[in-house]
């Protein structure tokens, strides 16, 4: 967040430095000669200093505009180094003004620079202080080393400005922290809502709503490139008896294990295992032929068998088993029809003794 903020408002601050630089250069040409006569001797040095600031600011602005990722870490580091250099150059510039007795420009100018730095860099105390501290120090020291009629007044003004700067920094920092905190909270909230909207709260796998969305999307893709696609509908055998025998809590744990087993049987990130409702599950297998779907179904049966979840009341096995119905997409078939075909195969698996898979009749 800080990184993003610095590369965004840093550009504005670089433009400010650039404009100030042009002002210093222009001042020499547009001010009455006597007003700046005292610094005429040092003018070539000032020209070099302003030239350097112009070169640094314009190159960093160019870099920030051209970078593919404007919030990259290296860019914010580069900006930080550039600001340090610019600060050092301003320090020398102000020193020249002060020793030349041209202090009238230094205080308002330094104050402007310090307060614009506060506006653009307040969220990063390290960068803000590394830019402003050298400027604070040089004007403070010069005010006493090269006293003028206004030394005391300047000192009071200096303390007043420092107080304003620090209180302003604290207020702005407070707002920044508040904004960052609420952005994090909002992000967490969106993540929680997405999880609730897309996942089954018990098993953690996709819910029926997401399954339908993903199936519709997959079928839209099928219209363009007719790759195979299969569905497997699954139902835990005699789950009511399991619940009645072991209790609802154990039933929930059993469903969680079954869901995990389905997820482990998927092969690619495209495959989706979802809870369809109650003890019914469904799997979407894009790029999968009926034959490959049979392999997945066999793998699920093996994985479930390996889990050995006891089911004392099941007439088909001492362990929890499942019925599986497989259907494969054929051109012009709707999502509802495809699900109905998988469901029909599932009911045939139940009718033929459970603990088995069956292929939809259209595949045979
Ligand atoms: N523990 C638990 N049980 C559930 C949940 N959702 C549905 N059930 C139970 O699942 C059982 C489903 O019963 P049936 O539809 O008769 O299915 P079945 O007993 O498996 O019979 P067949 O499907 O014919 O093998 C019911 O007892 C439901 O209460 C759940 O989230 N947790």
TrEMBL record:
Transmembrane intervals: 12-30, 42-66, 78-99, 105-123, 128-146, 152-178
Record pathway: Purine metabolism; 3',5'-cyclic di-GMP biosynthesis
EC number: 2.7.7.65
InterPro entries: Diguanylate_Cyclase, GGDEF_dom, MASE5, Nucleotide_cyclase, Rev_trsase/Diguanyl_cyclase
Key words of the record: GTP-binding, Membrane, Nucleotide-binding, Transmembrane, Transmembrane helix
A Gene Ontology biological process term: cell adhesion involved in single-species biofilm formation
Reactions accelerated catalytically: 2 GTP = 3',3'-c-di-GMP + 2 diphosphate
Coiled coil stretches, renumbered: none
Sequence ranges assigned to domain GGDEF in this UniProt record: 227-362
Top-level class of the enzyme under EC nomenclature: transferase
GO annotations of cellular component type: plasma membrane
Cofactor: Mg(2+)
Pfam families, sorted: GGDEF (PF00990), MASE5 (PF17178)
GO molecular function: diguanylate cyclase activity; GTP binding
Source species, domain of life: Bacteria
Protein name (Swiss-Prot/TrEMBL): diguanylate cyclase
Species whose genome carries this gene: Buttiauxella izardii
């Amino acid at each position: 967040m800080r990184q993003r903020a610095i590369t965004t408002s840093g550009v504005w601050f670089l433009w400010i430095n650039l404009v100030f630089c042009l002002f210093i250069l222009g001042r020499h040409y547009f001010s009455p000669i006597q007003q700046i006569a005292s610094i005429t001797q040092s003018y070539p040095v000032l020209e070099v200093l302003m030239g350097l600031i112009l070169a640094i600011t314009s190159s960093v602005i160019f870099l920030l505009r051209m970078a593919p990722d404007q919030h990259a870490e290296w860019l914010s580091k580069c900006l930080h180094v550039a600001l340090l250099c610019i600060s050092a150059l301003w320090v020398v510039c102000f020193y020249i003004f002060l020793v030349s007795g041209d202090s009238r420009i230094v205080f308002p100018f330094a104050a402007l620079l310090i307060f614009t730095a506060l506006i653009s860099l307040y969220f990063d105390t390290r960068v803000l202080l590394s830019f402003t501290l050298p400027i604070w120090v040089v004007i403070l020291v010069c005010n006493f080393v090269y006293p003028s009629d206004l030394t005391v007044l300047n000192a009071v003004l200096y303390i007043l400005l420092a107080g304003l700067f620090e209180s302003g920094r604290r207020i702005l920092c407070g707002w920044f922290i508040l904004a960052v905190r609420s952005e994090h909270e909002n992000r967490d909230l969106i993540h929680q809502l997405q999880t609730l909207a897309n996942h089954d709260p018990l098993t953690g796998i996709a819910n029926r709503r997401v399954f339908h969305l993903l199936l519709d999307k997959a079928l839209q893709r099928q219209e363009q490139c007719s790759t195979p696609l299969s569905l497997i509908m699954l139902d835990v055998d005699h789950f009511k008896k399991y619940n009645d025998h072991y209790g609802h809590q154990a039933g929930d744990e059993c469903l969680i294990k079954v869901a995990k087993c389905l997820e482990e049987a998927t092969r690619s990130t495209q495959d989706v295992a979802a809870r369809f409702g109650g003890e019914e599950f469904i799997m979407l297998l894009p790029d999968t032929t009926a034959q490959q779907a049979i392999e997945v179904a066999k793998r699920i049966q093996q994985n479930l068998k390996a889990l050995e979840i006891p089911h004392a009341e099941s007439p088909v096995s001492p362990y929890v088993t499942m019925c599986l119905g497989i259907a494969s997409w054929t051109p012009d078939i709707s999502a509802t029809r495809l699900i109905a075909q998988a469901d029909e195969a599932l009911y045939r698996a139940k009718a033929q003794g459970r603990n088995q898979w069956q292929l939809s009749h259209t595949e045979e």
